Sequence to fold (655 residues):
Amino acid sequence: MSDRIFGVFGMILAAGYVFAALAIEESFLSDAVGPKAFPLIIAAILGLSSAVIALRPDPEPHWPALGRLAEVAAAVVVLILYAEMLPVAGFVIATAFAAAYLAWRLGSGPLEAAAVGAGTSVGIYVTFHLILGLSLAKGPLGF
Amino acid sequence: MELLANLGDGFAIALSWQNIGLALLGCFLGTIMGALPGLGPSNGVAILIPLAFTMGLGATPSLILLTSVYYGAMYGGRISSILLNIPGDEPAMMTCLDGHPMAKKGLAGEALSLSGIASFVGAFLATWGLILLAPQLVKIALLFGPAEYFALFALAFMTLGGVSSTNQAKSAFAAALGLGLATIGVDTQTGVPRFTFGEVHLYDGLDFLVAIVGLFALSEVFIFLETRHGGSDAAGRKLTIGKLYPPMAMIRQTTPTMLRTSFLGFIAGVLPGAGASLGSFISYSMEKKLVDKEGTFGTGDPRGVAAPEAGNNAAAGGALVPMLALGVPGSGTTAVLLAVLLALNITPGPLLFSQNPDVVWGLIAALFIANFMLLAMNIPMVGLFTRVLMIPSRILMPIVAMVSFVGIYGISGSTFDLLVMIGFGVLGWVLRKLDVPLVPVILGTLLGNAMENNLRRAVTIDNGNWWTLVDSPLSIALWAIAIIGFVLPLIVGARVRAKMHQRQDEEGAISD
Fold:
């Protein structure tokens, strides 16, 4: 069933891609092929392979239980927040929180998670910023 | 003679303090990444690319660092195969079959050192193969016009699924997805924006480094979160190693095996669609057929340890040949290495050898140096790396995730790229769940623009005649190989794959 849904999704994607490709404005100065042809070829392959996937599905993959799925979703949200907070809070603070969260969700105790968070963030800061001179996001506190 | 002069120049470049240091660092990190289950050569190189890039390393030093990681990972994969019966990376799968039984017999140290020697022999011979074969391939590649290049790219995509691929539709889907992603941005030939939906950040196209790190490294973190695999695979086991040097008799017994499988592995590496995993599989199967008269393979036969290790390391060297000489990688990790070259504005292919000989020969010399370093690291110091296996992934994975973010942020300093990377991480996770290969996606985003430009150039040169694509004998030959490579797995793929996994199950399912 997963593969059938995936295949149908792929075909919709291919169709959307075709529409977007046809909407490309051609410039008055163009080569013999133009900017649309290659995307259209790709769309054809995308659509065909999706159709085959939908018609001849593989055995069902092993999907995690809802709780585990929520786990991954929560991690994605945390990482998005991390990306957004990076310029606001500064590298060291944001990274410490994000790393501690990941460690906690992978099964560390609260104390260990805090240690991993602090250790990762300070470790990266020292190695990459202080030693190697990479510029990292600066927060209000200057690090 | 010219070859030796070139090689001499290469050593002159590689033997600077900085480059030796980088090779040492790369070998060390690579062995660790190879040894840890869950971090393979492609993830390892992927995480380090942005770092090498932001640290402002030049082309040769970055390549030295990253190919050392690549070679190192090929060495490191065997450690957990032998000690834990869990392959550290995919190519090390076959090493479990005889390596772990040897360890159970109390011969762990012998197995580790013997496989280290086998890895060395494989990689050493393959590096010589690279030197001898790549310039010949360059001579052929100089005959290529745009139409032939287009056919060559098509060949790379059609054979990438490999002989062991079960579902060619999914490989094709992955390739088309990657190529489609590459078309995002301003069209290089006419200057019109395509698929940007008015988003200014997309005018430049998607940065393939962002895609690679997201697809490979971040999706791995999601997989670990999903399975909540937070412990260490080595927890609660005694990792005794014992003697660190194999007896001379064992080396003598396995020498013919190593030489044969190095050759075979190298060929498997050069051929499109094979790669290191298949290299070690073919090597093991052939040796079993050839020398296993008493049926000792699978019960801890030293030759069964030497064969796949020499095979996969030789394949790793072989895979560099098409990547450097043609600019078309045949495996996941060489695709990632191609990204390094492209990010540094160096176009691999025949011109690389004439325009940047310092890069090519410096790299080759560095491979020799790295190989000796790895031999030294992997025999006397192997105990250090077995300790790495004790690090639980609940500590390791947050570090991997954060280093990925640092690398990408370091390149662009933009939050938008980080969000795109997270998007690719999710995409990679879903695709892995659905058993869609990720390497064609990467290769598509890398080569998409070059492929399209060659197509358009070829057709434009011939005044819009599309038949020009199959006009020369060379391009017809390339298309023929491509079609055979795509159709063959449909016929034999299921059988080869079943065999690869059946072997694995007979011996390998004990520990899980």
Q: What stands out?
A: The mean pLDDT of chain A is 87. Chain A touches chain B through 74 residues (CB under 8 Å). The two ends of chain A are 49 Å apart (CA to CA). The helical segments of chain A are 2-22, 37-55, 66-89, 91-105, 110-131.
